[in-house]
Amino acid sequence: MTSFRVKDRGRVKADRPVRFSFDGVAYEGCEGDTVASALLANGVHLMGRGFKYHRPRGPVTAGSEEPNALIGTSRGVGRFEPNTRATVQEIYQGLTTESQNKWPSLKFDVGAINDRLYMLFSAGFYYKTFMWPRSFWDKVYEPFIRRAAGLGKAPVDVDPDHYASRYLYCDVLIVGAGPSGLAAALAAAQTGVNVVVVDEHAEMGGSLLSEPSVGINGKAAWDWLEATLDELGRLPNVRLMTRTTAIGYYHQNMIALCQKLTDHLAELPTDAPRERMWRVRAKQVVLGQGAIERPLVFDGNDRPGVMLASAAQTYLNRYGVKVGNRPVILTSHDSAWYAAFDLADAGAKVGAIVDTRNDIQAALMQQAKARGIETLTGHTATATSGRLRVKSVRVNPVRGGRVGKARTIDCDALLMSGGWTPSLHLFSHTKGSLHWDAEENVYLPGQQTEECHIAGAGRGLWGIAAVLEDGVKAGTAAVRALGHSCDAVRFDVSDDRTGNGVTHKELATDRSPGRAKAFIDFQNDVTAKDIRLAVREGMRSIEHVKRYTTNGMATDQGKMSNMNGLMIASDALQKEAPQVGLTTFRPPYTPTTFGTFAGYHKGSHFELTRKTPIDSWAEEHGAAFEPVALWRRAWYFPKAGETMHMAVSRECKATRESIGIFDASTLGKIEVSGPDAVEFMNRMYTNPWTKLAPGRCRYGLLLGEDGFIRDDGVIGRMRDDLFHVTTTTGGAARVLNMMEDYLQTEWPDLKVWLTSTTEEWATIALNGPNARKLLAPLVEGVDISADAFPHMSVAECTVAGFSSRLFRISFTGELGFEVNVPARHGRALWKKLMQAGRQYDICPYGTETMHVLRAEKGYIIIGQDTDGTVTPQDAGIGWAIGKAKPDFVGKRSLSRPDIVARDRKHLVGLLTDDPKIVLEEGAQIVTDPNQPLPMKMIGHVTSSYWSEALGRSIAMALVAGGHEKMDQTLYIPMPGHTVAAKVTGTVFYDPAGERLKVE
Amino acid sequence: MLLIHCPYCDDTLPELEFAYAGEAHIARPSDPSELSDEEWRDFLFIRSNARGVHAERWRHIHGCARYFNALRDTVSDKFLRTYKAGEPRPDTSVQEAVK
Q: CATH top-level class for A163-291+422-486?
């Protein structure tokens, strides 16, 4: 295989070979190569296929803006990554890579048939092609689109890497370590302020890495670079970060950085993160992002071997690789002439420099002549040939707007330059305004919204001297804004390659423009013709053109395509570019892994798991768990061989017949204390509290100001000025927030203190006819006999030696107690109660049994039987409203017209005609199952269980006008069958409440 | 991520410590029963939805837990001022809002 490596050129280490593979073929590159530079050194240009037409493609750039050379990289299980840019991925020993979007092989791809059918795939083809017939959608179109959508294969294994996350605070953050960024760093660092310099490349230096012939302060560019990095690196106030991309610029100078740590290493260090996300808060920011070269738009500008002139210059000077032996240059900017000169000096036979402009600097013409390079000025390119590699370019003179006779020039690389686009991505993230420079046809930074300074090519400057000077200016301005003054830094630059150029829409052609495949967005295969078609079909805004054609929606986010698309759209609309607009740049600047964003938040660290003091006992005893808000709660306690259904039925039976024990510690608890506590409770909750005596408790109902149920729970009055409020498990924080809101902002005059005590207490519920028998011998300090301690009592006492708040309440309909002890004693108390309960065959039960037992009694669960649109009347608990109270939160809303309207959805019971059928929760309810589709749905099932006590299924439902539908039969249509059910009250078990009165 | 000045802590801290709490200066009527259905509807649901300077409530939930008020420009998403609950809405000039 021919080597295109040029001796004594480039910064790669020629004496350190690195072996890697691409599509199963072994290649050798050098340390310092990217996959792209190493493949080019081996003469390989073909690295990918276009998305739509599957046309063969090679790298068009040498940087992170690459649209074509996307590859998959892998290094063992779970470490496969698609869509890696070959121009960025550094090679290491054993790196395995593969091409994408081809079948069966990159050189012979069946999908390339699309290229012949290109007339079908014009702008908006998704919208036009996949419309009809309707029946084709599921079976034909959707599978087709899914197969065709996206590039590369999604990884299927769990990512074994971990990702880190850090905060960083600094005085000056400099993004981009090219000449402007480094000059800014030199200026700022001398004042002693804290400076951070980041660059996305493996090496700092930016354009200097591709321009070794420039002299700075009497040194060759690379010597100056080395000395400068050395100087900055020694300063304690400077941090230099390579392989670190500023991906987003957020409010108040927060910049997100993605630092790649291991993707370039042959040996993965153990326990090192793969990537690290930095959230940097900088007092001042300097953006030295540089500029990106624009492709020229002409028929066949996408063949492998056609690339940007600056990329060819980078491959030559930085990587020591000639991209071709017979390159032709096609340009509208002076910069590409230097690429021609450098390649000629490296031994390439430059076929011609074709420039669209008529007048070229004499110095350039002389240098070309001196090297024997033919120059064709005032020319256009109208076609190329070559399937897997460009073979020739067809060029024509343009005189007075007329395209003359064509001539074909053979070549093995075609290096184009359509001028330069300042990189404004990060600046645009700040919503800084852009200013249209009509002369240069570029957008430049305008009004700023953040403390930032833009330097160098990023604001349209050209030439190393100008850029260095501008960097100093930006660095100086940044430190001045921080109150420092700094000495002037000056640079003496020699052999600077200054220049200028013009920009174009599509190049002029003598052929039918309708047949030209003149690409703008290489990755998404959008051509100039597509943009013009979109405009003809009515798209006026560039945002519409973008979405209709997919221009700029590729992984390069329009870095290659935005400006060319805009120039052509504005030409088609006959409007100035600013009137057509510019699509919005959004973070991230370059594709970023999900891992970087997730950071530490994965697996068990995704969110915290709250556990009760009794959780460990439940785990030891084989509980199945379920998540409830952030808590994990024991769901049921299966014995060997038991299904969930069997376990829950056993737990229900044991509780109703003897005694069950339940961990209710997750209940939210809020202590409301202070001289005005009762007044506060009266205003917050619907119920009256004034007459509730200390030692008594009451069911409390909390509404929103809109009259809908927000939360509920039993509230005990411990003293005149102290309430023990319980809330739902999931509602604790919400209720405390709501209470604080009213207390702080509406009633700041009330002397009340609110304390969250949820985790202070472990709460154990004992329910069943034997509850008192078990508990009484363990209680000291209060008589819990039926008369002395009636239902809805609370007392402070000692239980099994632990000081406790003891409630006599029931969420099961059985005789019930809830023992609250300091959380640290929860497990010990649980074990003592289990021990003492042996004689009654005490049965631990979980949340599922709790749900069944409460549903048998018609007790609602907030958020299950209510959904934020249910009033107390709707839920059938209007009795909980203190009607005599002048006001409470939500009271006024209970007389709103919509709230008193008839036919609101009411909570009712449902009993299926077939008692064995357990309805599905969420199932929709209709009155007539034979009505035509779509049926009128009048409500849905909210709770549904098998009731062991009743030997049948029970359900609750929200049904329109349900309270007026008692004893009517309603229908629940299910796939394949319909279930009939009768509307009932919600109390299914012991409606008279006799069981609470057990002696 | 925004930085927000808590007027009680007198410190500028990351947005993560704070929670948004809706439009400011909407006082609950002292006697809601006196309000017509329309007036009560407006109190419950009608908000200014300002384009530009918006007075709004924030809570320093992971700090001092106090509610306070802020003036924020909803276009630039910049805070112009924060102030304690109960204090009147400060005057802001148009220039300040634009900045």
A: alpha beta
